């Protein structure tokens, strides 16, 4: 089973809502897009091939940011899409913590392949 640990020295950027451009098309704000790209490129240096099975993801964010933790998780997971795993729908266990920075702001991501989730049998 595959497992990876990725450490990124960066301030976390929460996922921003898509914006409507002057041309009438939706776009992701620049800061969000650049953060997601940073996550992807850093992960590429550790992960050679995306995991195809369900995964557990643990994220520790060392930052004083006041951003919502769920929006930070969304941006990180979107950055991992197609790099660490094929799609974030594969995430069956997600844990994220926001902790005070010790020496610098950073993000530590652990990804582990896991077994498929058991399906419930219909009773009746």
From TrEMBL:
<dbReference type="GO" id="GO:0006310">
    <property type="term" value="P:DNA recombination"/>
</dbReference>
<dbReference type="GO" id="GO:0006281">
    <property type="term" value="P:DNA repair"/>
</dbReference>
<dbReference type="GO" id="GO:0000287">
    <property type="term" value="F:magnesium ion binding"/>
</dbReference>
<dbReference type="InterPro" id="IPR036614">
    <property type="entry name" value="RusA-like_sf"/>
</dbReference>
<dbReference type="InterPro" id="IPR008822">
    <property type="entry name" value="Endonuclease_RusA-like"/>
</dbReference>
<protein>
    <submittedName>
        <fullName>Endodeoxyribonuclease RusA</fullName>
    </submittedName>
</protein>
<dbReference type="Pfam" id="PF05866">
    <property type="entry name" value="RusA"/>
</dbReference>
